[in-house]
Input
Amino acid sequence: MSVPAAMADSVVERASPLLRVAALTKRYGDQPALTAVSFDVHAGEVLGLIGPNGAGKTTLLEALAGLIPVEAGELMWCGAPTPIAERRGVMFYLPDGLRPWEDEIVQRVLTFFAAVHGRSQHEVADAVGSVGLAPVLRKRVHALSKGFARRLMLALALLTPQPLLLMDEPFDGFDLRQTRDVMGLIRRVALSGRTLVLAIHQLADAERVCDRFVLLADGAVRGAGTLDELRTQTRLAAASLEDVFLALT
Amino acid sequence: MRSPDVIAVRRTPLRPLLVKELRSIVNGRALWTMLLIMCPIVGFSFFQALSLYGEASASASDQAALASGLSPLDGILVPTFGAFYVTVTLLFPFVAIRALGREKETGTLRLLVQLPYRTPTLMMAKAAAVAGAWLIALIPAASALVLWRMLGGHLHAIETLNLLLGHLLYGLLIGAVALVAAAITESTATAAIVTLAITIGSWILDFALAGQPGLAEWVSRLSLTQTLRPFEQGLFSLGLVLGSLVAIVGFAELATLWLHPGVPLRARLVRSLACAAITSALVLLAAQVRTTIDVTEDRRNSFPAADQRALATLREPLIITVHLAPEDPRYVDLRRNVLSKLERVMPNVTIRLVANQSFIGRSGDYGEVEYSYAGRIDKSRSTSHREILPLLYGLAQVPLPTAVSGEDYSGYPLVANAALVLPWFFGVLPLLIALAWWSSRRAPSIPLPICQGGES
Output
């Protein structure tokens, strides 16, 4: 594809986002967790939700997935309102630090997910190979190390068919080399046509893997766009994501 | 626009979910621990029942009248399943809570509700797994029945199945209550406390309020334990079965309403109130179904066969006015020996209880029972059908029916050798259960393509 054609496609995609989040508001008692959060997610991109601990990243992902009730706000999928009951058809959320069905054997968790989503044994094998789960297939989930538990979650995500993946802190628990591998995997997933929204608190990781960013602080959006757009917004040419984030928050 | 979710839900197979739910119960220690505890409790109860039945049978060996009183339902089944009932009440909640509580506690519920299943389908799978766990829990008691047959004991198929149905309904009720508790509370420990408060509270209702007049008597009927009573007496009560099924479905629906974490609290509360109201109304409606069948082989809940046939032909309304306090033992006798049987056999019976506590000792009518049929009235103080039925035939102006010979229950006396019972329940069966537990913990073999993919 030529560059002008790609740019034209990009303009079309920007004009009609895959997911539009409008004025999402969530409170825990008197404490605001999300304040009128609005942003767009475009098809095929890797979008990073960036913010420090307590910024509202996890709350935002759970609200998007319909796993917590919100006070106000709307989600539009391809321009149409998406009620909670329909969201699991279009997006899949991977919580942080979860060991799914921890008394079960890893292989059984994978084959359960595969059977539910109509995946073949070869597709399971591909997922296992992609994340390097082979050494622990016969182990129980509760016996996995933090890194392997994270890989299991990634493998489950690969087996799901939803076009949008929401991942909370996908690099937590991985060392440097493993983080690079997972980044490569995420890029391959995006290239295959799926869209990813990643909640990340490590700005350096986010800068390396994400196409665009939504900067969150205290439950509010402080900026959104590509790194270049954010640099323009903050008038910090050649600044790192960290510099941009500090300037906007 | 057609929802993508609806498309996915329609295509998703149910089997993997059912297998996963059953495995999640089998993977836990609760089921196996309950089974291991059940073995000696059920086994000792069966052993004692066998010994007492044997003693009674020995003394009845040459007396037909005594032998006719020996029914395996009373002598063996009810005591053995009584032990099963105690363990189900106290331990089964821990097994049932696990079906949902662990996923909620560990956060895995957030994955589960994103799978392409409707929330009621998820809960139905969990309820099915709880029913499966109950079937597994039945193994010690079922093995007692097999031993009883091997020892030469008699089992009447219908009364045995009826008793099992009662225990199944009771187990499912306990399971459904446990699922509601697990859905509403945040931890398995709290869910267990809530469930045990309800099950043990039922016992307290039974002990403290049963037999009391007025509101206390009505409240005591809310006890879950009441579900079992008619089945233990050899009665199949259609109203009770329907009411129990409605309550089980109602509890499961209530648990469903609390399953998805994305529903606002206010919406959950409103829907729960509506669910409770509809369930209560349906249970009350089911309670109006009076069809009750005596399924016992000895027909203990019925009059003699000739009387049954004669009474069934009396189509006019029979009004019985009882001048007794409900807690009076004479009323209890009258109710059990006559009134309940009349209600079951005659198509139109009305019973009026006109006495209360302040009435006792101050009225000369106290103790009298007035029978009104076809405009004719008679009175009696008897609580025996032998006096009352002739009185009714007189009121109806029909001849006394002739007793039919050969219809009497002869009983099933048996002096069994119980030597094998204790080793089975205290040794062999626990060992087999432990082996099954160990086997369930073994990792399965991995299909070749997955191995190859994993190693590439």
